[in-house]
Amino acid sequence: MNQKKTPQLIIFDLDGTLVNSLPDIANAINETLGERGGAPLDLDAVREKVGDGPRKLVERAFPDSSPGDIDPIVRRYLEIYEKHSGRVATLMPGAQELLDSLSGRTLAVVTNKITRFAIDNLEKLGIAGRFSAILGFDCGLPVKPAPDCLLHIAAAMKIKPSGCAMVGDGLPDIGAGKAAGMLTCAILGGFGDPVELKRLEPDIAVQTMGDLIPVFCPGGDPH
Question: Which pLDDT belongs to residue 218?
Answer without folding.
Answer: 64
